[in-house]
Amino acid sequence: MNLTVLVQALVSGILIGGVYALIGIGLTIIFGVMRVINFAHGELMMVGMYLTYFLFTLLHVDPFVSVLITIPIMFAFGAFLQKTVINRILGSLPQNQILLTIGLGLIMSNTVMLLFTSDYKILTTSYSSSSLHVAGISISQPLAVSFAITVAITGALYWFLMKTDTGQAIRATAQDREAAQLMGINVRRMSILAFGIGASLAGTAGALISPTYYVFPQVGSAFTLKAFVITVLGGMGSVVGATLGGIIVGVVESVGAVTISSDWKDVLVFAIFLVVLLVKPSGLMGKSRM
Amino acid sequence: MFGCNVVLFLMEVDSMRTRPAALIALFCLTVPCLAFPASKVKLGFVNTITGAEAPIGENLSNGVTLAIEDLKKKGIEVDLVKEDDTGKPEKALSAFEKLATRDGVAGVVGPYTSACANAVASRADQYKVPLLVPVAAKEEITQKGYKFVYRLNAPADVYSSVILDTIFALDKPKTIAYVYANTDFGISTVKTAKEYAARVGLKEVADEKYQKGAPDFRSTLSKIKALSPDLVFMVSYEVDAITLMRQSREIGLSPKAFLGAGAGFTTSQFLAQKEISEHVFSSTQWTDDVNWPGAKDFYNRYVAKFHKEPTYHAACAYEAMRIMAETASANGGDREKTRAALRNGSWKGIMGDVKFVDYDKFNNQNRHEMLVQQIQGGKYETVAPAKYATKKPAYPFRWK
Q: Which of A29, A94, A283, B111 has its Cβ near the most Cβ atoms within 10 Å?
């Protein structure tokens, strides 16, 4: 095994892992605060991808700049879903919640299919296949920018959750909903905020992956599955865990593809997933919620 | 036709006033000539209308829509029952069973993907329903001795042989790397490419299967780059082809030629990616610039109607539906007679000469001649076989 190839795989893995992490963090926040498993997470990402696509093709907004528009729109969309639909089933049985979010996902993907057909939309920017070369290693330009944006957003989110009053209220709600309520925290409002943040993170991940990937109505399902693996691996509800989970999945896929075979990379990811669950059922950072 | 009958009628009407029997005789003579439609036939069409393969499936649907229009002009009214298999073999199978039993169709065209077509083919004999596979490539479909299964397109082995023949006519490459989707189409096409490579002494340096739709191939491609193969052979559906080529460019993978086996490498979306698609070779079942009767006309009408360029899938589906409808209609919708007529008939149309024959391990297989195209100056140009070529192949490959 050539060392350059291995380092290349590691670099690619970390970069793509950053985007995975962003998807995972959104899911984990929603679960942490509301204990609702959001099966429509991939579809939220898909909506973000379509937003980015149309902002680029109709208004010529660069996909990375469009994040500034996508984040508030997706936040509003997520908050709307929470307020009108999900808040109604917060206290009900988990299977009802799961069915509801699956249903929401189906409605989103099929509505998009009705509106824009099932055609693949491909976003072609001047840098879609550009790369920087550093010491024989090629670094994908769009992926490097995505990674930088991911780091910035994750940092800002972490600061928000740790340092601001609202952030602390969200964390309090995640730790103990009833106690938080007794302390005078408006937990319904926190839920709306959490779902809004989750949706905007999913939308941002969609925007960041658009220049190198493609958009179609069913694109979400593959990422929903990935988001679950990342979230459970890192520990349900843990932001740091989801970040770690995302990077681990990215690196394992990438290094697995060069050391064993690209055919086996998913097997490797799930094998590590199982081992972590067996050894530490709560996930890597399972205890330290938020 | 109508005119001749009117004249006939005017000539004879005078003498017929007193002869009702002759009037009835005239009526019987006239009606068949006037009859629109001459015949109605019920057929099934299994296609991937939703799901990940739906964009290519749409080409098949459009091809069939044009075929139905043309058949109507010829006086064949098709009562078409469309079924969506969503790209899943089990759904294709239940769709076929429904068509065979509840709908009672005379024949079925489809399904699109190899996995679905292979599943359905295994039941055609059981239900005794003629099945005409328009575009699925997996070899096995017409290798199991099924009596009711026919295939219009060339199977997987031709995808690889036609393109490697083209390269060997230009150069003597020594090494090859395979990157392909972990699908029935991908696996069977690469299997036949490997057999070909073994015959000509082409050394395999990498064999990389991937999960369809993966977002990141960079590590796999950098591993291949380190092995510096002369040829990179790819089999991909739809947009994986674009992801693969974009990331090849990022990584700086630069073989003497990129070879794409049909599907994702033959779409207008791939063509539109000018930075990465120039000089990529691909094998295809059909192009609009061949001299097969009606090919260019089909292309023009397709573009006018659907505002998109047709892929070879559209042409295959069009021709398969035409052949199935004409045959079933001529045989009054009888399944056994339709099967026999498919077996013994021959056709000429936008896919060239069509005849279902037995050869090597295949049966009821049309020996369709595949083409090789290369993107030159942002256009698909047919570069082989020589008799159909519009341009000379550009070789070796270099990134723009």
A: B111
Provide the shortest C-alpha distance from residue A185 to chain B (in Å). Answer: 41
Domain housing A62? 3-279
Asked if A255 lies within 8 A of B219 by C-beta distance, the reply is: yes
What's the CATH number of domain B43-152+297-366, 3.40.50.2300, 3.30.70.60, 3.40.50.300, 3.30.1360.10?
Answer: 3.40.50.2300
Write out the residues of chain B at the interface with chain A, using a CB-CB cutoff of 8 A.
50-52, 54-55, 58, 182, 208-211, 213-220, 222-223, 226, 238-239, 242-243, 245-247, 249-252, 269, 272-273, 275-276
Asked whether residue A290 is assigned to any structural domain, the reply reads no
Please check whether the two domains, B43-152+297-366 and B157-284+371-388, share a CATH topology: yes
ipTM score assigned to the predicted complex: 0.84
CB count within 10 Å of CB B281 equals 26
Give the chain A residue nearest B227 (alpha carbons). A2
Closest CB from B50, B250, B275 relative to A131: B250
Residue ranges per structural domain of chain B: 2-30, 43-152+297-366, 157-284+371-388
d(CA A202, CA A49) in angstroms, rounded, equals: 9
Taking Cα atoms as reference points, which of B57, B107, B55 lies closest to residue B81? B107
Tokens 């698909």, residue located: B380
* A286 in a structural domain: no
Q: Look at B272 and A254 and tell me if their CB atoms are within 8 Å.
A: no
- Hey, are the CB atoms on A213 and B50 less than 8 Å from each other? no
- Cβ of A212 within 8 Å of Cβ of B246? The answer is yes
- Rounded-to-integer distance, Cα A23 and Cα B235, Å: 30
| pTM, 2 dp | 0.82
Number of domains chain A contains: 1
Q: What sign results for the dihedral spanned by CA atoms B384, B386, B387, B388?
A: positive
B249: CB partners within 8 A, 6+ apart: A129, A131, B275, B276, B399
- Torsion sign (Cα): A32, A34, A37, A41: negative
The answer to whether position A31 is within a domain reads yes
In a domain, A220, yes or no: yes
Fold of B157-284+371-388: Rossmann fold (3.40.50)
CATH code at position A150: 1.10.3470
CA R_g for chain A: 19
Mutate one of A2, A7, A12, A53 to test the B interface: name it (highest B CB count within 10 A). Answer: A12
Chosen from A16, A138, A247 to mutate, greatest number of chain B CBs within 10 A: A138
Give the closest-approach CA distance of B337 to chain A in angstroms.
Answer: 39
Which chain A residues are closer than 8 Å to B246 by Cβ? Answer: 128-129, 212
Series of mean pLDDT values for 10-residue runs along chain B (400 residues): 40 45 47 50 94 84 97 95 94 96 96 95 95 94 96 93 93 94 89 92 93 87 93 89 92 94 85 91 92 94 93 95 96 95 96 95 95 92 91 90
Residue A72 has pLDDT above 90, yes or no: yes
